[in-house]
Amino acid sequence: MQTVASRYFGRFGGRFVAETLIAPLDELADAMGNIVDQPAFQGQWRSLLRNYVGRPTPLTEAARLASAIDPSRSAIAHLFLKREDLCHTGAHKINNALGQVLLATKMGKTRIVAETGAGQHGVATATACAMFGLPCFVYMGEEDVARQAPNVGRMQLLGAEVIAVTAGSRTLKDAMNEAIRDWVSNVSTTHYCIGSAAGPYPYPELVARFQSVIGDEAKVQCCDQLGALPDALIACVGGGSNAIGLYRAFLDHESVAIFGVEAAGDGVETDRHAATLTKGRIGVLHGSKSYVLCDEQGQIAEAHSISAGLDYPGVGPEHSALKESKRVTYLSTTDEEALAAVTQTARCEGIIHALETAHAFARIGDVARICARERGRPVTLLVSCSGRGDKDLSTLLSKLVVRKDP
Ligand SMILES: *Cc1c(COP(=O)(O)O)cnc(C)c1O
Known about the structure:
The structure is a single chain. This protein is of the alpha/beta class. The protein has helices at 22-36, 39-53, 63-69, 93-106, 120-132, 142-147, 149-157, 172-185, 203-211, 213-226, 241-247, 276-279, 317-324, 335-349, 355-361, 364-375, 393-404; strands at residues 8-9, 12-13, 59-61, 76-83, 111-116, 136-141, 161-165, 190-192, 232-236, 257-265, 281-285, 288-292, 328-334, 379-385. Strand 5 (111-116), helix 5 (120-132) and strand 6 (136-141) form a beta-alpha-beta unit. The longest helix is centred in the N-terminal third of the chain and has 15 residues, at 22-36. The structure holds pyridoxal-5'-phosphate.
Protein backbone atom coordinates (compact mmCIF):
# COMPACT_ATOMS: atom_id res chain seq x y z
CA MET A 1 0.00 0.00 0.00
CA GLN A 2 1.24 3.47 -0.89
CA THR A 3 0.94 5.92 1.96
CA VAL A 4 -0.47 9.31 1.03
CA ALA A 5 2.75 11.01 2.14
CA SER A 6 4.84 9.08 -0.38
CA ARG A 7 2.79 10.47 -3.25
CA TYR A 8 4.43 13.81 -2.55
CA PHE A 9 7.88 15.27 -3.07
CA GLY A 10 8.04 17.61 -0.10
CA ARG A 11 4.73 19.45 -0.42
CA PHE A 12 4.54 18.95 -4.21
CA GLY A 13 2.92 16.30 -6.38
CA GLY A 14 -0.12 14.31 -5.25
CA ARG A 15 -3.06 13.60 -7.50
CA PHE A 16 -5.58 16.31 -8.28
CA VAL A 17 -7.77 14.41 -10.72
CA ALA A 18 -11.34 13.44 -11.50
CA GLU A 19 -12.79 10.62 -9.37
CA THR A 20 -12.76 8.26 -12.38
CA LEU A 21 -8.95 8.38 -12.54
CA ILE A 22 -8.27 7.40 -8.91
CA ALA A 23 -8.70 3.66 -9.51
CA PRO A 24 -6.53 3.57 -12.68
CA LEU A 25 -3.82 5.61 -10.92
CA ASP A 26 -3.93 3.16 -8.00
CA GLU A 27 -3.64 0.30 -10.50
CA LEU A 28 -0.60 1.96 -12.06
CA ALA A 29 1.00 2.67 -8.68
CA ASP A 30 0.54 -1.00 -7.72
CA ALA A 31 2.04 -2.08 -11.05
CA MET A 32 5.10 0.04 -10.35
CA GLY A 33 5.88 -2.15 -7.34
CA ASN A 34 4.44 -5.48 -8.48
CA ILE A 35 5.67 -5.44 -12.08
CA VAL A 36 8.29 -2.74 -12.82
CA ASP A 37 10.44 -3.44 -9.78
CA GLN A 38 10.51 -7.19 -10.45
CA PRO A 39 13.56 -8.87 -12.02
CA ALA A 40 11.58 -10.29 -14.96
CA PHE A 41 10.40 -6.84 -16.09
CA GLN A 42 13.77 -5.23 -15.44
CA GLY A 43 15.50 -7.94 -17.49
CA GLN A 44 13.18 -7.48 -20.45
CA TRP A 45 13.29 -3.66 -20.36
CA ARG A 46 17.07 -3.51 -19.95
CA SER A 47 17.55 -5.96 -22.80
CA LEU A 48 15.49 -3.62 -25.02
CA LEU A 49 17.59 -0.65 -23.87
CA ARG A 50 20.78 -2.51 -24.79
CA ASN A 51 19.76 -4.22 -28.03
CA TYR A 52 17.20 -1.79 -29.45
CA VAL A 53 17.88 1.69 -28.02
CA GLY A 54 21.68 1.30 -28.13
CA ARG A 55 22.46 1.79 -24.45
CA PRO A 56 24.65 2.54 -22.69
CA THR A 57 24.93 5.85 -24.52
CA PRO A 58 28.49 7.25 -24.62
CA LEU A 59 29.96 9.85 -22.32
CA THR A 60 31.86 12.17 -24.67
CA GLU A 61 34.52 14.66 -23.58
CA ALA A 62 34.00 18.01 -25.36
CA ALA A 63 37.42 19.66 -25.14
CA ARG A 64 37.03 22.11 -28.03
CA LEU A 65 33.68 23.31 -26.69
CA ALA A 66 35.22 23.70 -23.22
CA SER A 67 38.00 25.87 -24.69
CA ALA A 68 35.54 27.94 -26.74
CA ILE A 69 33.48 28.66 -23.60
CA ASP A 70 36.47 29.11 -21.28
CA PRO A 71 39.59 29.96 -23.37
CA SER A 72 41.94 30.16 -20.36
CA ARG A 73 40.52 26.88 -19.01
CA SER A 74 40.59 28.48 -15.58
CA ALA A 75 37.01 27.33 -14.84
CA ILE A 76 36.51 24.09 -16.80
CA ALA A 77 38.83 21.12 -16.20
CA HIS A 78 36.73 18.58 -18.09
CA LEU A 79 33.42 18.87 -19.92
CA PHE A 80 31.54 15.60 -20.44
CA LEU A 81 28.38 15.15 -22.51
CA LYS A 82 25.93 12.31 -21.76
CA ARG A 83 24.86 11.43 -25.28
CA GLU A 84 21.11 10.79 -25.13
CA ASP A 85 21.01 12.21 -28.67
CA LEU A 86 22.46 8.86 -29.77
CA CYS A 87 19.49 6.85 -28.45
CA HIS A 88 17.30 5.24 -31.11
CA THR A 89 14.74 7.92 -32.13
CA GLY A 90 17.12 10.71 -31.09
CA ALA A 91 16.39 11.63 -27.47
CA HIS A 92 16.05 10.25 -23.95
CA LYS A 93 12.26 9.91 -24.39
CA ILE A 94 12.56 6.31 -25.65
CA ASN A 95 13.84 5.06 -22.24
CA ASN A 96 10.51 5.95 -20.65
CA ALA A 97 8.27 5.17 -23.64
CA LEU A 98 9.58 1.60 -23.93
CA GLY A 99 9.23 1.14 -20.18
CA GLN A 100 5.65 2.39 -20.09
CA VAL A 101 4.46 0.55 -23.20
CA LEU A 102 6.05 -2.68 -21.96
CA LEU A 103 4.29 -2.12 -18.63
CA ALA A 104 0.98 -1.46 -20.43
CA THR A 105 1.22 -4.84 -22.18
CA LYS A 106 1.79 -6.53 -18.79
CA MET A 107 -1.25 -4.70 -17.41
CA GLY A 108 -3.39 -6.02 -20.27
CA LYS A 109 -3.91 -2.63 -21.93
CA THR A 110 -4.56 -2.74 -25.67
CA ARG A 111 -4.41 0.93 -26.65
CA ILE A 112 -1.89 3.72 -25.95
CA VAL A 113 -2.46 7.48 -25.87
CA ALA A 114 0.25 10.12 -25.46
CA GLU A 115 0.79 13.87 -25.66
CA THR A 116 3.77 15.41 -27.36
CA GLY A 117 5.39 18.85 -27.70
CA ALA A 118 8.53 18.65 -29.81
CA GLY A 119 7.27 15.34 -31.12
CA GLN A 120 10.13 13.36 -29.56
CA HIS A 121 7.88 11.66 -27.01
CA GLY A 122 5.27 11.04 -29.71
CA VAL A 123 7.89 9.41 -31.94
CA ALA A 124 9.26 7.39 -29.01
CA THR A 125 5.77 6.17 -28.04
CA ALA A 126 4.82 5.42 -31.67
CA THR A 127 8.08 3.46 -31.96
CA ALA A 128 7.40 1.43 -28.81
CA CYS A 129 3.80 0.78 -29.97
CA ALA A 130 5.03 -0.41 -33.39
CA MET A 131 7.42 -2.82 -31.64
CA PHE A 132 4.68 -4.24 -29.44
CA GLY A 133 1.91 -4.06 -32.07
CA LEU A 134 -0.37 -1.68 -30.13
CA PRO A 135 -2.51 1.13 -31.64
CA CYS A 136 -1.12 4.56 -30.75
CA PHE A 137 -2.88 7.94 -30.61
CA VAL A 138 -0.74 11.04 -30.15
CA TYR A 139 -2.20 14.43 -29.21
CA MET A 140 -0.13 17.38 -30.42
CA GLY A 141 -0.85 21.13 -30.40
CA GLU A 142 -1.49 22.57 -33.85
CA GLU A 143 1.37 25.05 -33.45
CA ASP A 144 3.77 22.19 -32.68
CA VAL A 145 2.43 20.13 -35.60
CA ALA A 146 3.58 23.02 -37.81
CA ARG A 147 6.99 23.64 -36.24
CA GLN A 148 7.98 19.99 -35.78
CA ALA A 149 6.77 18.65 -39.14
CA PRO A 150 9.47 15.95 -39.52
CA ASN A 151 8.36 14.28 -36.29
CA VAL A 152 4.69 14.32 -37.38
CA GLY A 153 5.68 12.47 -40.55
CA ARG A 154 7.77 10.04 -38.53
CA MET A 155 4.87 9.20 -36.17
CA GLN A 156 2.53 8.65 -39.12
CA LEU A 157 5.06 6.40 -40.84
CA LEU A 158 5.28 4.37 -37.63
CA GLY A 159 1.51 3.83 -37.79
CA ALA A 160 0.42 6.26 -35.08
CA GLU A 161 -2.55 8.58 -35.42
CA VAL A 162 -1.54 12.20 -34.76
CA ILE A 163 -4.41 14.34 -33.53
CA ALA A 164 -3.82 18.11 -33.89
CA VAL A 165 -5.18 20.02 -30.89
CA THR A 166 -6.62 23.46 -31.69
CA ALA A 167 -7.53 24.53 -28.13
CA GLY A 168 -5.71 27.21 -26.09
CA SER A 169 -2.15 28.06 -27.11
CA ARG A 170 -2.15 24.94 -29.35
CA THR A 171 0.98 23.61 -27.66
CA LEU A 172 2.00 20.95 -25.12
CA LYS A 173 -0.34 21.99 -22.27
CA ASP A 174 -3.38 21.71 -24.53
CA ALA A 175 -2.18 18.41 -26.00
CA MET A 176 -1.90 17.03 -22.46
CA ASN A 177 -5.44 18.16 -21.61
CA GLU A 178 -6.79 16.27 -24.63
CA ALA A 179 -4.74 13.14 -23.90
CA ILE A 180 -6.09 13.08 -20.34
CA ARG A 181 -9.64 13.52 -21.69
CA ASP A 182 -9.16 10.55 -24.03
CA TRP A 183 -7.75 8.46 -21.16
CA VAL A 184 -10.70 9.27 -18.88
CA SER A 185 -13.16 8.06 -21.56
CA ASN A 186 -11.25 4.85 -22.42
CA VAL A 187 -9.54 4.02 -19.17
CA SER A 188 -10.30 0.28 -19.04
CA THR A 189 -8.46 -0.49 -22.29
CA THR A 190 -6.02 2.41 -22.52
CA HIS A 191 -2.69 3.33 -20.96
CA TYR A 192 -1.78 7.00 -20.96
CA CYS A 193 1.94 7.18 -21.66
CA ILE A 194 3.10 10.50 -20.14
CA GLY A 195 6.30 11.87 -21.63
CA SER A 196 7.80 13.72 -18.69
CA ALA A 197 8.20 13.46 -14.92
CA ALA A 198 4.94 15.36 -14.44
CA GLY A 199 1.23 14.59 -13.97
CA PRO A 200 -0.55 12.91 -11.04
CA TYR A 201 1.17 10.30 -8.85
CA PRO A 202 2.58 7.75 -9.76
CA TYR A 203 3.65 9.25 -13.10
CA PRO A 204 6.43 11.55 -11.82
CA GLU A 205 7.95 8.61 -9.92
CA LEU A 206 7.45 6.07 -12.71
CA VAL A 207 9.04 8.30 -15.36
CA ALA A 208 11.92 9.26 -13.05
CA ARG A 209 12.67 5.58 -12.43
CA PHE A 210 12.73 4.81 -16.16
CA GLN A 211 14.95 7.82 -16.90
CA SER A 212 17.31 7.12 -13.99
CA VAL A 213 19.22 4.86 -16.34
CA ILE A 214 20.83 8.11 -17.64
CA GLY A 215 22.46 9.04 -14.34
CA ASP A 216 23.18 5.46 -13.30
CA GLU A 217 25.23 4.97 -16.47
CA ALA A 218 26.84 8.42 -16.33
CA LYS A 219 28.03 7.88 -12.77
CA VAL A 220 29.83 4.63 -13.68
CA GLN A 221 31.24 6.17 -16.89
CA CYS A 222 32.49 9.25 -15.06
CA CYS A 223 34.26 7.12 -12.46
CA ASP A 224 35.80 4.95 -15.23
CA GLN A 225 36.93 7.85 -17.43
CA LEU A 226 37.87 10.35 -14.72
CA GLY A 227 38.30 8.31 -11.57
CA ALA A 228 35.97 10.67 -9.72
CA LEU A 229 32.45 12.06 -9.61
CA PRO A 230 31.82 15.27 -11.57
CA ASP A 231 31.73 18.59 -9.70
CA ALA A 232 28.47 19.67 -11.30
CA LEU A 233 25.58 18.42 -13.44
CA ILE A 234 23.61 20.53 -15.92
CA ALA A 235 20.37 19.56 -17.69
CA CYS A 236 17.55 21.41 -19.41
CA VAL A 237 14.15 21.26 -17.70
CA GLY A 238 10.82 21.11 -19.53
CA GLY A 239 8.67 18.76 -17.46
CA GLY A 240 11.99 17.64 -16.08
CA SER A 241 12.51 13.98 -17.10
CA ASN A 242 16.00 14.07 -18.61
CA ALA A 243 17.11 16.25 -15.70
CA ILE A 244 15.69 14.05 -12.93
CA GLY A 245 16.98 10.99 -14.79
CA LEU A 246 20.49 12.40 -14.63
CA TYR A 247 20.23 13.81 -11.09
CA ARG A 248 18.89 10.86 -9.12
CA ALA A 249 22.15 8.89 -8.99
CA PHE A 250 23.95 11.97 -7.65
CA LEU A 251 21.42 13.56 -5.26
CA ASP A 252 22.97 11.92 -2.20
CA HIS A 253 26.51 13.00 -3.16
CA GLU A 254 26.75 16.42 -1.54
CA SER A 255 29.99 17.20 -3.44
CA VAL A 256 28.08 17.23 -6.73
CA ALA A 257 26.45 20.61 -7.44
CA ILE A 258 23.30 20.28 -9.54
CA PHE A 259 21.83 22.78 -12.00
CA GLY A 260 18.64 22.80 -14.09
CA VAL A 261 17.98 25.22 -16.92
CA GLU A 262 14.54 26.44 -17.95
CA ALA A 263 13.42 28.26 -21.10
CA ALA A 264 13.45 32.07 -20.72
CA GLY A 265 11.93 32.61 -24.20
CA ASP A 266 12.14 36.35 -24.94
CA GLY A 267 13.44 36.93 -21.37
CA VAL A 268 12.15 36.24 -17.85
CA GLU A 269 11.33 39.96 -17.46
CA THR A 270 8.86 39.67 -20.39
CA ASP A 271 5.61 37.68 -20.34
CA ARG A 272 6.86 35.37 -23.11
CA HIS A 273 8.85 32.62 -21.40
CA ALA A 274 8.52 29.13 -19.90
CA ALA A 275 10.64 29.66 -16.76
CA THR A 276 8.20 28.01 -14.38
CA LEU A 277 10.53 27.53 -11.40
CA THR A 278 12.20 30.92 -11.85
CA LYS A 279 9.02 33.01 -12.22
CA GLY A 280 6.05 30.77 -11.39
CA ARG A 281 3.85 30.28 -8.35
CA ILE A 282 2.58 27.16 -6.63
CA GLY A 283 -0.58 25.80 -8.25
CA VAL A 284 -2.14 22.71 -9.79
CA LEU A 285 -1.71 21.66 -13.41
CA HIS A 286 -2.41 18.28 -15.02
CA GLY A 287 -3.19 16.57 -11.74
CA SER A 288 -0.17 17.63 -9.73
CA LYS A 289 0.76 20.42 -7.33
CA SER A 290 3.91 22.18 -8.44
CA TYR A 291 5.21 25.52 -9.65
CA VAL A 292 3.11 26.82 -12.56
CA LEU A 293 2.97 29.94 -14.69
CA CYS A 294 -0.30 31.70 -13.96
CA ASP A 295 -1.96 35.11 -14.07
CA GLU A 296 -3.21 37.24 -11.14
CA GLN A 297 -6.43 35.17 -10.92
CA GLY A 298 -4.48 31.91 -10.81
CA GLN A 299 -5.42 30.94 -14.38
CA ILE A 300 -2.65 28.95 -16.10
CA ALA A 301 -0.75 31.31 -18.37
CA GLU A 302 0.56 30.56 -21.84
CA ALA A 303 4.22 29.65 -21.98
CA HIS A 304 6.60 30.59 -24.75
CA SER A 305 9.82 28.97 -25.90
CA ILE A 306 11.49 28.50 -29.27
CA SER A 307 11.85 24.86 -28.25
CA ALA A 308 8.53 23.01 -28.36
CA GLY A 309 9.73 20.51 -25.75
CA LEU A 310 10.20 23.23 -23.11
CA ASP A 311 7.11 25.27 -24.07
CA TYR A 312 5.10 24.22 -20.99
CA PRO A 313 3.74 26.33 -18.09
CA GLY A 314 4.31 23.55 -15.52
CA VAL A 315 7.17 21.44 -14.21
CA GLY A 316 7.44 18.04 -12.52
CA PRO A 317 6.79 18.17 -8.74
CA GLU A 318 10.16 16.70 -7.76
CA HIS A 319 11.86 19.74 -9.32
CA SER A 320 9.70 22.07 -7.24
CA ALA A 321 10.81 20.17 -4.14
CA LEU A 322 14.47 20.28 -5.23
CA LYS A 323 14.20 24.02 -5.79
CA GLU A 324 12.65 24.52 -2.37
CA SER A 325 15.25 22.37 -0.59
CA LYS A 326 17.94 24.26 -2.57
CA ARG A 327 19.58 20.94 -3.56
CA VAL A 328 19.26 22.05 -7.19
CA THR A 329 19.83 25.56 -8.58
CA TYR A 330 17.58 26.52 -11.49
CA LEU A 331 18.77 28.98 -14.14
CA SER A 332 17.25 30.02 -17.47
CA THR A 333 18.29 30.57 -21.09
CA THR A 334 16.64 32.80 -23.72
CA ASP A 335 15.64 31.72 -27.24
CA GLU A 336 18.49 33.79 -28.64
CA GLU A 337 21.09 32.20 -26.36
CA ALA A 338 19.77 28.71 -27.18
CA LEU A 339 20.16 29.33 -30.92
CA ALA A 340 23.74 30.52 -30.40
CA ALA A 341 24.52 27.43 -28.30
CA VAL A 342 23.35 25.06 -31.07
CA THR A 343 25.75 26.70 -33.54
CA GLN A 344 28.62 26.73 -31.06
CA THR A 345 28.35 23.02 -30.19
CA ALA A 346 27.90 22.12 -33.87
CA ARG A 347 31.07 23.97 -34.89
CA CYS A 348 33.21 22.89 -31.92
CA GLU A 349 32.13 19.28 -31.55
CA GLY A 350 30.30 18.19 -34.70
CA ILE A 351 27.16 17.58 -32.66
CA ILE A 352 23.87 19.24 -33.64
CA HIS A 353 21.81 18.96 -30.48
CA ALA A 354 18.15 19.85 -30.02
CA LEU A 355 17.01 23.38 -29.17
CA GLU A 356 15.76 22.01 -25.82
CA THR A 357 19.22 20.64 -25.07
CA ALA A 358 20.79 23.96 -26.09
CA HIS A 359 19.27 25.60 -23.01
CA ALA A 360 21.59 23.54 -20.80
CA PHE A 361 24.62 24.15 -23.03
CA ALA A 362 24.14 27.93 -22.97
CA ARG A 363 24.72 27.99 -19.19
CA ILE A 364 27.91 25.82 -19.12
CA GLY A 365 30.16 28.88 -18.74
CA ASP A 366 28.10 30.36 -15.89
CA VAL A 367 27.92 27.08 -14.00
CA ALA A 368 31.66 26.52 -14.46
CA ARG A 369 32.46 29.98 -13.09
CA ILE A 370 30.12 29.59 -10.09
CA CYS A 371 31.57 26.18 -9.17
CA ALA A 372 35.24 27.04 -9.90
CA ARG A 373 34.97 30.11 -7.67
CA GLU A 374 33.43 28.06 -4.83
CA ARG A 375 36.00 25.26 -5.09
CA GLY A 376 39.06 27.36 -5.96
CA ARG A 377 39.99 25.17 -8.95
CA PRO A 378 38.78 24.30 -12.45
CA VAL A 379 35.83 21.91 -12.28
CA THR A 380 34.48 18.91 -14.16
CA LEU A 381 31.01 19.33 -15.63
CA LEU A 382 28.59 16.68 -16.82
CA VAL A 383 25.93 17.96 -19.24
CA SER A 384 22.86 16.08 -20.43
CA CYS A 385 22.86 16.10 -24.24
CA SER A 386 19.17 15.19 -24.16
CA GLY A 387 18.48 14.96 -27.91
CA ARG A 388 19.55 15.62 -31.45
CA GLY A 389 18.52 18.64 -33.48
CA ASP A 390 17.36 17.21 -36.81
CA LYS A 391 13.74 18.03 -35.93
CA ASP A 392 14.70 21.70 -35.40
CA LEU A 393 16.51 22.19 -38.70
CA SER A 394 13.88 24.41 -40.34
CA THR A 395 13.59 26.61 -37.21
CA LEU A 396 17.37 26.79 -36.93
CA LEU A 397 17.95 27.66 -40.57
CA SER A 398 15.21 30.31 -40.70
CA LYS A 399 16.44 32.02 -37.50
CA LEU A 400 20.12 31.78 -38.34
CA VAL A 401 19.60 33.12 -41.87
CA VAL A 402 17.52 36.01 -40.50
CA ARG A 403 20.27 36.83 -38.04
CA LYS A 404 22.98 36.87 -40.73
CA ASP A 405 20.92 39.33 -42.81
CA PRO A 406 20.44 42.53 -40.75
C1 LIG B 1 11.19 16.49 -24.55
C2 LIG B 1 12.59 16.96 -24.53
C3 LIG B 1 13.10 17.73 -23.45
C4 LIG B 1 12.26 18.22 -22.32
O1 LIG B 1 11.63 17.25 -21.58
P1 LIG B 1 12.12 16.85 -20.12
O2 LIG B 1 11.05 15.96 -19.64
O3 LIG B 1 12.27 18.10 -19.34
O4 LIG B 1 13.41 16.13 -20.29
C5 LIG B 1 14.43 18.06 -23.47
N1 LIG B 1 15.24 17.71 -24.49
C6 LIG B 1 14.78 16.98 -25.54
C7 LIG B 1 15.71 16.63 -26.64
C8 LIG B 1 13.45 16.58 -25.59
O5 LIG B 1 13.01 15.87 -26.63
